[in-house]
Amino acid sequence: MANDIEKVRAQAHDANVANKIIDSLKELQQSSDEKSRCRWVWELIQNAKDVANSSGSVDVKISFNEQQRILQFAHNGKPFSMQNIVFLIEQVSTKDRDEKEEAKRSTGKFGTGFLTTHLLSEIVTISGVLQDENSQFKRFELDINRSEKTREGIIAGNKKSFEQLQNSIENGKIIFDFNEDLFNTSFTYRINENGLGVAKEGLGNLYDALPYVFMFVPEIRSVSVEEYAWKFTRGKLYLSKNKDIKVQEIIVRENEEESGIYIAAIQGANVAVAAEVEKHGNHVAVKEFTNQLPRIFCDFPLIGTEDFVFPAVVNSSQFNPTEPRNGIFLKDVDEIETKENKNLMMEAVQLYGQFLEYVSRRGWEKIYNCNGVQREHNKKLNNGLPILHKVPPKRDYRRYFCIMAEKGGTSHGGLTEKLSLFFHAKKQEVNAYGR
Questions:
Q1: What's the CA gap between 340 and 344, in Å, rounded?
Q2: Which end of the chain has the least Cβ crowding within 10 Å, N or C?
Q3: Are 147 and 122 in contact, with CB atoms under 8 Å apart?
Q4: pTM for the full predicted model
Q5: Rounded distance, CA 398 to CA 105, Å?
Q6: 252/80 Cα distance (integer angstroms)
Q7: What is the mean pLDDT of the chain?
Q8: 3-state secondary structure the chain
Q9: Which residues does 92 contact at the CB level (< 8 Å), separation at least 6?
Q10: How far is 421 from 289, CA to CA, in rounded Å?
Q11: Which CA distances in Å does 69 have to 27, 122, 184, 203, 205?
């Protein structure tokens, strides 16, 4: 009788896992658009960040062979645990959203977000190193096959994956000289015509947002795309005298040429506000935001927030994002996650004011690039959140106002009316980054 119970329980578990995967894949395909098609690369980078090695950092290498139609994502993070592999096959997240302290630095590992990578290919080959309970290292390789669309097909595919894993455990050689600096983990996708477009869109989306990820995610040490011949590497971190403003240098190498990108940010208790800047001798200027840059980050960019009406980039690891990770909950409802998001945005408004005060006091140039909404037609989206009026570049911007207007009944409603004088600009001599 006990064996019968366990057999039925196992069958029920397998069916539940398969049904969840089928439903998630169906929803993913039906909602696929130019935004969601870019998400796969950020999901893989998030997973790499969550397994930073003993140095506290991780390097990412992306290989994309368009002619052979193969894309490989590799990193030098920690080896897999058995739980990691099982949860990856069955699409169970190892992140518990009730554990708030852990959630602050864990963006989510191997949950439903990993399914977005199947927009590249229905089959992914995973190669890595398993560290068992005795701290022995063994190399493994297995396929995750989502080409079948039936419950029986998914169950059979998962069974095949577990058989490949078991074979690696039984027949794999023990690694005695494990080197964590090597790219031991890889995800390989053999892509079709549709996957080719998804690959290009995702890689193209990297360039604008990746510098901000280096500011917000200290675990990321470098990201390279071999076929595009570019590599982003973490550079120096500059701090202002009172450490309220920091500037992260990102070294960019493209086709043997090297340049620097600089992201300036002010960090609060739970939120950071940031903008890209550039150096001209001892002078600093704020760069204009591109239309492709998401304005909200939950450590990583929420693709779909490019039109969000805020004059700088806002990051918080405590944001409660939508399940497609294309925005945050801000509707005018009495719900805890929405309230948390609104409180975080209010903190962002205060930080933004402090940021403007600092950069104007230090004499940074082109402040108009971060002193207002770049798209006037989007002001209507901001009922209840700051309506920030842009000051034309040639106008004297010594006085600048943020108006909080409550209108209610919209997806961003619910805050009170408020008028705040943000800064009184003063022209001063300035050293680079206010040092």
A1: 6
A2: N
A3: yes
A4: 0.83
A5: 39
A6: 30
A7: 81
A8: CHHHHHHHHHHHHHHHHHHHHHHHHHHHHHCCCCCHHHHHHHHHHHHHHCCCCCCCCEEEEEEEECCCCEEEEEECCCCECHHHHHHHHHCCCCCCCCCHHHHCCCCCCCCHHHHHHHHCCCEEEEEEEEECCCCCEEEEEEEEECCCCCHHHHHHHHHHHHHHHHHHHHHCCEECCCCCCCCCEEEEEECCHHHHHHHHHHHHHHHHHHHHHHHHCCCEEEEEEHHHCEEEEEEEEEECCCCCEEEEEEEEEECCEEEEEEEEEEECCCCEEEEEEEEECCEEEECCCCCCCCCEEECEECCCCCCCCCCCEEECCCCCECCCCCCECCCCCCCHHHHHHHHHHHHHHHHHHHHHHHHHHCCCECHHHHCCCCCHHHHHHHCCCEEECCCCCCCCCCEEEEEECCCCCCCCCCCCCEEEEEEECCCCCCCHHHC
A9: 17, 86, 110, 111
A10: 24
A11: 25, 14, 22, 14, 19
Q: pLDDT tens digits for 112-126? A: 689 899 999 999 999
Q: What is the pLDDT of residue 3?
A: 75
The string of pLDDT tens digits covering residues 345-366 is 999 999 999 998 898 888 899 9
